[in-house]
Amino acid sequence: MLRVLNDDVVAAGRGFGRHPHDNMEIVSIPLKGTLEHGDNTGGHGIIKSGEVQIMSAGSGIAHSEKNASENEPVNFLQIWIFPKEKNITPRYDQKEFKAEDRINKFQTVIAPEKDSNALWINQDAWFNLGDLKSGSVTQYKLKNSVSGVYAFIIEGDVTINEQKLNKRDGFGVWDTDMLSISADSDAQVLLMEVPMN
Fold first, then answer.
1. 125 and 89 in a common domain
2. Final residue of a domain: which of 58, 81, 96?
3. Torsion-angle region of 196 (φ positive above 0: left; ψ -120 to 50: alpha; else: beta)
4. pTM for the complete prediction?
């Protein structure tokens, strides 16, 4: 299940000091700027727009997230998902995804299959990014019949299943197996398919 979606802006040279979590899947998606991660397992990375980071807090991890720039702010989404299996070994991973692979379609960046091209998550959840050109129409077929989808409109205007949505709107959909997404302007959309309970 989806617990938190934060749309954070962190000033240059600032951030969140080291703090603990356990039994939570935490995904960070930079939209602008660069983000620096560090944790007590030795995990460290700098991620920028076009990259995605995942951390399984598992049995317990302490981490920090800060703006990697001394001059520019960083804007990133941080999403918390309840895990499928508790008390796993904590882990951290990040990956860059090609922008051209999400033009007028949805690119899976988070998935529960360890052998996919996406980052692995300890939950039956799929995160998908789409860069949609104005006038385009695409569909998203749910992977799991008991899932719901939370759509977050990063930029632009879209219509999802006849519901008009604008920049930074969120929209939850369940009891369906397909979404129809029409781009009313150039738009960037995040679809998060997650268990409903």
1. no
2. 96
3. alpha
4. 0.95
| Claim to verify: residue 104 and residue 190 sit in the same structural domain | yes
- Neighbouring CB atoms inside 10 A of 7's CB total 13
CA–CA gap between residue 105 and residue 132 (Å, rounded): 7
Domain that holds residue 129: 99-195
Residues 104 and 166 in one domain: yes
Q: CA 193 to CA 147: how far, in whole Å?
A: 6
Give the N- to C-terminal CA distance of the chain in Å, as an integer. 6
For residue 1, what are the CA distances in angstroms to 25, 74, 82, 150? Answer: 10, 27, 5, 10
> In the predicted model, is pLDDT for residue 185 greater than 90?
yes
**Tens digit of each residue's pLDDT (9 = 90 or more) over 126-164:** 999 999 999 999 999 999 989 999 999 999 999 999 999
How many other C-beta atoms lie within 10 A of the C-beta of residue 45? 15
* Strands, E assignment, the chain: 2-10, 15-21, 25-32, 34-39, 44-48, 51-56, 61-67, 74-81, 91-96, 106-111, 119-120, 126-132, 137-141, 147-155, 158-160, 163-165, 170-173, 178-183, 187-195
Residue 138 pLDDT: 97
